[in-house]
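Q: Okay, next protein. This is ATP synthase subunit C lysine N-methyltransferase-like from Clupea harengus. I've checked the sequence twice, so it should be correct. Can you predict the 3D structure?
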Amino acid sequence: MLNTQQLTTPEHPTTITNILNILNIQQPTQISHNSAILLHEPTTPSSPSNILIPRQHPHPPATSSSPSNSFIYQEQSSVPFLPSSEQQTQNVLKLLEGRAGLLADLGSGDGRLILGAHSMGFQCTGFEVNPVLLAYSRARVRRRAIPPTHIRFLNQDFWKTDLSKYQNVTVFLAPAVMGQLEQKLRSELPANARVVVCRFPLPDWQPSCSQGVGQEQVWAYDMPPQPCERNTTTAGDASQSQV
């Protein structure tokens, strides 16, 4: 376990304690090494460029097909907060061009994607369970004097939230949860919705289009989703073998 006073970065000696004090959040007494996250913010004379803070990532409820031990499942499904790069953010926004309706960012982190989507005219809701990231995101919105009717950051687990009113959903989560996320999105999103995911594609859906390459690549999926071509081929081969 690591005391929060020890969490500093090579670029700046600021500790997490100072950040929590700035945000007026009571600090945790201890955090583990694997719960530390790296928060990037444009450098200003009064703010460090890199700040380590802890994150508890939301994870889907256990099902008959997932481990019953919630601690084990959390270890498999959680991911340290890694903010999307500028290029990733631009690629996501590119795949949202020409669309309208409400937008939800599942695990909104420091709010950068929400702010970008707002600049395109979307009414946005960010779901984030970490209080530090939540306060940081809200502070960014206040600094820009954006009305709460345009952007909301909710301290709410999106796994326990009905997403049926959102026509646009953005996702940057760990691969371990993407299969269960498919089930949730399929059952809740309206027929005209679009899902845009960063870095890790949905395993069983065929993307409508993509943008970027390598680690900057993002994928768009239009509802209702189409199965991956590889899955369709596999199913066809299996049916032929049974005949």
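A: Here is a summary of the prediction. The two ends are 59 Å apart (CA to CA). Residues 86-229 form a domain with the Rossmann fold fold (CATH 3.40.50.150).
Q: Noted. On to the next one.
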